[in-house]
Design brief:
With 482 residues, the protein is α+β, with helices and mostly antiparallel strands. Helix content is 35%, strand content 23%. It contains 13 helices and 30 strands. The radius of gyration is 29 Å and the shape is elongated. Mean pLDDT is 84; it is low at 1-70.
Length: 482
């Protein structure tokens, strides 16, 4: 691979849509009118606040180039090592030769961790993820217990590696958790003779992770032995090159973290936008004077019980609480439905279906992918009339308020067959504005969802690009100029 080709593959222009809220504000909020001035001020503050956060996160994502230093392809000068070919000026050393590795310690028998902040945090494997520690659910050691395990702490200068439970997680310690106590199911790695960040990226690489999993004991409770960690082979370029490689990969991590932050903020924004628009608290411009009706579902929809007596070969669907209607075989990975499909209900394109006995979990879906499909006779199928935008109604029926309504009605049901059957479900009242306003609301929410989807796709792209960089840089296939 030539130098130009390498730069072309690995230099990213992070050109995304402007996720700062100003663009969305212009497109959506300025088209919407609230019912009173006070509420208007509240909504503008709500959106402006989120917009400010997104703008801060957006800096690295806004038409900037993550620059990779000029690179040269190594066409020769490799040598064989226990972990494969590496450049001849690199070394291979055992992790124990460049770092001190020590185990953590469990709390004494009979003692319990507490939620109260005693000043002595205790990091468990359940708090760890690949890259770091989630501090949101950290528990603490009682003060009278701490002296007994005070020698088993981990600092912000160390790395951790999990050795039991979820094995092979590698991460860094934040300032907040500096000198926290470490579980016996993880070891700390204090890097002495190399760049800590480089060692971190090497240990998280696909090559080393495969070796870690391969060296795990196959006992009833798999464990990664301390000696096996010390014996892990690590490819080591000269220290300046280690530092440059770590810097490049850190830049990718920064972009990934910013993208994740934007995604979370867009989720909050979309949820707030839906809550306001679907309840009529925020009105779309041009519809301020039109009234909303609160009507029973049976007034705008009818039950459908069409069966499959001719045993048509149609795809069988199941309903999930998160993904709606999905192909049963694809979702479960095996056949869970009957061989006899003559009693199954037909759910046509444009119809709703819900799990009669499990709707309290939010298991309701809308069939938009097939002209006809099949669903278990235990499901309820219905379709709306021409006064309803199905996307609008579906968003309402999937909202937390209505899931709570299903739960309440099922708890109070006297139907000995259980579940929430059509007779009771159809009594639930839903807000219905005029069709044009429904369409306008759906258009706004769809655009907001599209923006979120684009950012999620950008995140996947960044993660794949980082993986490719690691494979090239950490094996010396691509060299950086110092």
């Amino acid at each position: 691979m030539q130098e130009k080709g390498i730069c072309k593959v690995f230099a990213i222009r992070l050109q995304t849509k402007k996720y700062c809220f100003s663009a969305l504000y212009k497109n959506f909020v300025c088209r919407s009118v609230c019912r009173n001035a006070n509420f208007n001020d509240t909504i503008l503050d709500f959106f402006a606040g989120i917009g400010g956060i997104v703008q801060k996160r957006h800096t690295i994502m806004n038409s900037n180039t993550i620059e990779i230093p000029q690179t040269t392809q190594v066409s020769n000068g490799y040598k064989k090592t226990p972990i494969g070919l590496i450049p001849s000026d690199w070394e291979v050393k055992k992790l124990g030769e460049i770092a001190v590795i020590k185990g953590g310690k469990r709390i004494p028998k009979g003692a319990n961790l507490v939620e109260e902040n005693t000043g002595f945090p205790y990091i468990r494997v359940t708090d760890m993820y690949m890259g770091g520690v989630d501090s949101s659910k950290i528990l603490f050691i009682p003060k009278h217990i701490e002296p007994q395990i005070k020698n088993y702490k981990i600092s912000k200068n160390d790395l951790f590696i999990t050795v039991a439970g979820t094995i092979g997680l590698i991460g860094e310690i934040t300032e907040e958790l500096d000198n926290a106590n470490l579980t016996e199911n993880a070891n700390k790695i204090t890097v002495k003779l190399s760049n800590k960040k480089y060692v971190y990226y090497t240990l998280t690489s696909e090559l080393i992770q495969k070796i870690i999993i391969g060296t795990t004991t196959n006992n009833a409770q798999p464990k990664l032995a301390l000696e096996r960690i010390r014996d892990l082979f690590i490819p080591l370029p000269p220290l300046p090159e280690q530092q440059k490689i770590a810097s490049i990969l850190s830049t990718w991590d920064e972009a990934i973290d910013n993208c994740k932050g934007i995604i979370e903020e867009l989720k909050v924004r979309n949820k707030g936008l839906a809550q306001q628009l679907l309840t009529g608290k925020m009105r779309v411009k041009g519809f301020e004077g039109s009234k909303w009706l609160l009507v029973a579902i049976k007034k705008i929809a009818k039950n459908s019980s069409k069966k499959n007596p001719s045993d048509k070969e149609l795809i069988v669907l199941s309903c999930t609480k998160h993904n709606g209607l999905v192909p049963s075989l694809e979702y479960f990975g095996r056949k869970i439905y009957s061989d006899d499909l003559t009693t199954y209900k037909i759910v046509s394109k444009g119809q709703f279906a819900y799990a009669t006995n499990h709707i309290e979990e939010g298991s309701i879906g809308y069939q938009s992918n097939y002209e006809e499909a099949l669903i278990s006779p235990m499901y309820t199928v219905f379709q709306t009339d021409e006064t309803v935008n199905d996307n609008f109604l579906f968003r309402i029926l999937k909202s937390n308020n209505y899931i709570h309504e299903y739960q309440k009605r099922m708890e109070g049901s006297i139907d000995r067959r259980g579940g929430l059957r059509w007779d009771e479900f159809s009594k639930i009242k839903v807000p219905v504005p005029e069709l044009k306003e429904q369409n306008a609301i759906v258009e706004i929410l769809d655009k907001a969802t599209e923006e979120l989807n684009q950012c999620q796709q950008k995140l996947k792209t960044l993660q794949l690009q980082k993986k490719g960089l690691m494979q090239q840089l950490l094996t010396g296939k691509v060299r950086v100029k110092i």
